[in-house]
Structures are given as structure tokens and as C-alpha cells.
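queue> holo job accepted (FE2/S2 (inorganic) cluster)
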Amino acid sequence: MTTIVFFEPDGTRREVAAKPGESAMEVAVRHGVEGVDADCGGVCACATCHGHVDAAFFDRLPAMNETEDAMLELVEDQRAANSRLLCQLKVGPELDGIVISLPGVKR
Ligand code: FES
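queue> job finished
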């Protein structure tokens, strides 16, 4: 089982389980995590699944493609070096325990 720790915008910590093959966005939506709207349904066309990935896991992520990079420009004011679109992150066992903070998080 792969576990993801989300910090919702108000700072609430949510530890949830991923199913094999799910993206971090799908996991968040299925568990009702606040701060992940996923308006486009996961086709990398809205940037409403933006999150900040904890440094300990960031280097283990697949490389960002040009489309994701361009979409992140939509959230330029919230973008950071550890920004990713959660629909582009499949969460396998290698990412067990990954910590993702949603934009605006206060903790
Ligand atoms: S859900 Fe739209 S870009 Fe990720």
C-alpha cells in the first residue's frame, strides 16, 4: 500500500491510501482532500491540482514535461521549485509516505 500525506490549505494533515495506478490527484479527489479541484479531470489542462512536494521526495518524481511546465505558469504566484501538478504523478510504492502541501497551506 502507498500512503500519501496531504496538508490541506488550512493546515489539516490528511494521511490517505492510494490504489495501484492512481495519480496523486485521483487519490486526493477520492478521499475528499480540500484544495484539489481537478477541473479538467486529469488531462493536464487546468492546474487546479497544483501541489508542493516535500523535498525528500521531489527527486524521486518523474520528470516534468513541457505541458505540465506550461500549465504551472497559470499558478505563477503560487509556483515554487517543488511545484507539480498532481494529476501527472502516479504514486507507486517508491513514493510511499510522500508529503504534498496544497497551495495556501499554513503549518
Ligand atoms: S487535474 Fe487539471 S491539470 Fe491536473
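queue> The longest helix spans residues 24-30.
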